[in-house]
Design a protein that fits this description.
The structure holds 2 protein chains of 2 kinds. Chain A has 2 domains: about 250 residues, 3-Layer(aba) Sandwich (Rossmann fold), CATH 3.40.50.300; about 70 residues, no CATH class. Helices cover about 35% and strands about 25% of the residues of chain A. Chain A contains 13 helices and 12 strands. In chain A, helix 4 packs across helix 7, helix 4 packs parallel to helix 9 and helix 7 packs across helix 9. The longest helix of chain A has 17 residues. About 10% of the residues of chain A have low confidence. By secondary structure, chain B is α/β, with parallel strands linked by helices. Chain B has 2 domains: about 210 residues, Rossmann fold (3-Layer(aba) Sandwich), CATH 3.40.50.300; about 100 residues, no CATH class. Chain B has 13 helices and 12 strands. In chain B, the strands form 3 sheets. Chain B has an 8-stranded mixed beta sheet, sandwiched between helices. Chain B has a two-stranded antiparallel sheet with strand order 1-2. Chain B is globular. The model of chain B has no long low-confidence stretch (mean pLDDT about 85). Classes of the chains: A alpha/beta, B alpha/beta. Chains A and B meet through helix 9, helix 10, helix 11, helix 12 and helix 13 of A and helix 7, helix 8, helix 10 and helix 11 of B.
Chain lengths: ~350, ~325
């Protein structure tokens, strides 16, 4: 499998009221083609910031150091225009809240067509990767403003195909509906269909099923798994739910307070967790606990990211912390083959 | 101990437009016993919240009664006020259920207002309540924005406990929390239940949490009870196909057991405005036959204490037994 995305020494800082928040620290990872990688961790771990950094969508007070290489080319220095081309076509994104990501005053068919047309006109003639429908040929080259004029809008026939691919029920009628007329699961399917219609090689999904019921979640996760297998999509899935990660991911990256603390195949991470944080997190799930027996917990909270912390950030909550853990930056070490952990236990 | 039998038969109808009444919850009847935890599981739209609102006296049921210790809750205003503090609720989202402009101690004191306690007494109860959830004096003057998710949920629990309730209604109290914090809050709830002999009605969509917390389980679908019975029966050897689906769709944190990818979940939850005929689960049920489309199954006792509303519950159960059972771990 070929490498699709490579991140090297990526750090993200937010400047807030004169203080620096160290949201992501020195993260290096690579995604191979057709891989489904889950980034897991508690809130505040830096998972979403990482995803936004890859998309170049950080808020203006965020600054990035390090490099992000997509198919070997650096994307961190892209201009605003170049980013817009890149987003959607190379990397697609699905967010947690479909309702706030969809346009409430445009029906599904129109907004999906618009996404398609805008992206096609952006790519223009440079990279002719699509076979254009007659309708879009007409629209190609027209100003973006014209696309908003309903009278000139031509519904792209591809849209319906994509709705069918995400197995939405009654796709013809969904085309005419507005977001508020759809259930959460259907909206999320529309989001996925819209992201996929641009045929990105990489899909970033930030908690895509968190707001959904378990049965809908199962359907969406199966759909995403199918994308990897059938459409050769690579997926980076951000989730706080270890259950979701265990069910679909090939590889798990555990983040804590902006650091990658563990990285390994899904079976390795779950059957042989290395980092004390991963171990503690797995024990917190009430899966094997007898009814009403005390659950194991993890005391404390994520440290204040405004402070520069020397040594291991988990040390304050770690039952195995030693004096040495707080002295210096802990490195990510390859403990077993392709299984990494950031802990002095493995020095 | 007080006799905590409670019977709920609600059939609230909300007006939609001018013509249609939407039945959100139908003919739901059950009892809750002192000191037990009754888990309610179901998807959004299954009527869980409507049911809790009826029990908590927020909304009046269209039909039926909610009885607390043999007294009907909505009978008169006087009874209602008197009972108000006896049933308290903890909501899912602490951000929207805690007033951001009030300090922690004032939030917790609010349910005491109608009780008209003297100030010293009230302060003492607020203090005791906050201590019981593990929050000490340093938190009393803080505002919700200064608290973490787990701490906020502790404040919600303290507010519910301050009026010395008999029953706590817990509406997905941990679903907004991270796993580590969830474990802390669940431990706290179980400790409180033992200390104070509380009765819990616990709404959750998390099958593990439901099994861990509950003595008995009610499975709701489309506003009616589909299965009712002991937790270790209903959530381990379910009788209703919908219960099986719920369990199978729950992501088990074990990559060796990829239950979720193996199942086929059909369709979407039913429309409450135009519910399907017969058994409302039939469009999504892999076992549905003709009778399921025409006749609504009644809740019946199939095994001791295990009730189910499905025409074919026993047949499905027996076939699962012979084929090696349930998709659960």
């Amino acid at each position: 499998m070929e490498e699709l995305l490579r991140i090297e020494n990526l750090s993200v800082r937010y400047d807030e009221a004169g203080q620096r928040i160290h949201a992501v620290n020195d993260v290096s990872l690579s995604l191979k083609e057709r891989e489904l990688v889950a980034v897991v961790g508690e809130s505040g771990a830096g998972k979403s910031t990482l995803a936004l950094a890859i998309l170049g969508l950080l808020p203006t007070n965020g600054s990035v150091t390090g490099s992000i290489l997509y198919e070997g080319k650096s994307i961190t220095e892209l201009s605003k225009k170049a980013w817009e081309k890149f987003r959607g076509t190379a990397i697609g994104m699905i967010f947690q809240e479909p309702l706030s990501s969809l346009n409430p005053i445009e029906n599904v068919g129109n907004q999906m067509s618009e996404a398609l047309e805008v992206n096609k006109s952006r790519i223009g003639t440079k990279t002719q990767v699509y076979d254009y429908s007659p309708a879009s040929k007409v629209l190609l080259g027209q100003s973006r403003l014209a696309l908003f004029r309903r009278s000139t809008r031509v519904r792209n026939p591809e849209v319906l195909e994509w709705l069918k691919k995400v197995r939405i029920s009654d796709p013809e009628s969904v085309l005419e509906r507005y977001p508020f007329q759809l259930s959460g699961g259907m909206m999320q399917r529309v989001m996925i269909a819209m992201a996929l219609s641009l045929r990105p090689s990489l899909l970033l999904a930030d908690e895509p099923t968190t707001a959904l019921d378990v049965t809908t979640q199962a359907q969406i996760l199966k759909l995403m798994k199918g994308l990897v297998e059938d459409q050769n999509t690579t997926i980076l899935l951000v989730t706080h739910d270890l259950g979701v990660a265990a069910q679909v991911a090939d590889r798990i990256i555990v983040m804590y307070a902006g650091d990658i603390v563990e990285d390994g195949s899904v079976t390795d991470v779950f059957s042989n967790p290395l980092h004390p944080y991963t171990k503690a997190l797995l024990r917190c799930y009430p899966r094997s606990a007898k009814a009403k027996e005390r659950l194991e917990t993890l005391g404390g909270t994520i440290p204040d990211l405004k402070q520069e912390i020397r040594g291991c950030k988990f040390a304050d909550r770690c039952e195995r912390a030693k004096e040495g853990c707080r002295l210096e930056q802990v490195r990510l070490v390859e403990v077993e083959r392709n299984h990494f952990s950031r802990c002095t236990l493995y020095y | 101990m007080q006799d905590l039998d409670k019977e709920v038969t609600v059939n609230p109808g909300y007006r939609k437009g001018k013509k249609k009444r939407v039945k959100l919850v139908q003919k739901v009847s059950f009892k809750v016993y002192p000191g037990e935890t009754l888990g309610i599981v179901g998807e959004s739209g299954s009527g869980k919240t409507t049911l809790l609102r009826a029990i908590s006296m927020i909304s009046r049921p269209t039909q039926g009664k909610v009885k607390l210790q043999d007294r009907t809750i909505f009978e008169s205003r006087k009874i209602r006020e008197k009972m108000g503090g006896r049933i308290q609720m903890v909501f899912q989202d602490p951000d929207s259920s805690l007033n951001p402009t009030m300090a922690v101690k004032d939030i917790v004191a609010e349910p005491l207002m109608p009780l008209k306690l003297d100030r010293k007494n009230a302060e003492e109860r607020v203090r005791a309540s906050l201590h019981s959830v593990g929050l000490d004096e340093e938190f009393f003057g803080k505002y919700p924005a200064q608290l973490s998710g787990g701490q906020k949920q502790r404040v919600s629990i303290a507010r519910a406990l301050v009026s010395h309730p008999l029953i706590l209604l817990l509406d997905e109290p941990t679903s907004a929390l991270d796993a580590a914090v969830q474990a802390q809050v669940l431990n706290l709830l179980i400790d409180l239940q033992k200390q104070l002999h509380l009765t819990f009605i616990f709404v959750t969509h998390n099958v593990f949490v439901a099994r861990y917390m509950s003595d008995r389980i009610i499975v709701l679908y489309g506003g009616s009870v589909r299965e009712l019975g002991p937790a270790e029966k209903v959530l381990v050897e379910p009788l209703h196909p919908y219960t099986s689906t719920l369990i199978a769709a729950f992501p088990v944190p074990d990559p060796k057991n990829r239950n979720l990818l193996g199942i086929e979940v059909l369709g979407e939850p039913p429309s409450m405005i135009n519910p399907p005929s017969g058994c409302t689960f039939h469009p999504r049920c892999p076992f549905a036959k003709e009778i399921c489309r025409t006749e609504e199954p009644q809740l019946r006792e199939v095994f001791a204490d295990q009730l189910v509303a499905c025409h074919f519950a026993l047949e499905i159960f027996n076939s699962k037994k012979t084929t090696g059972g349930w998709t659960q771990e």
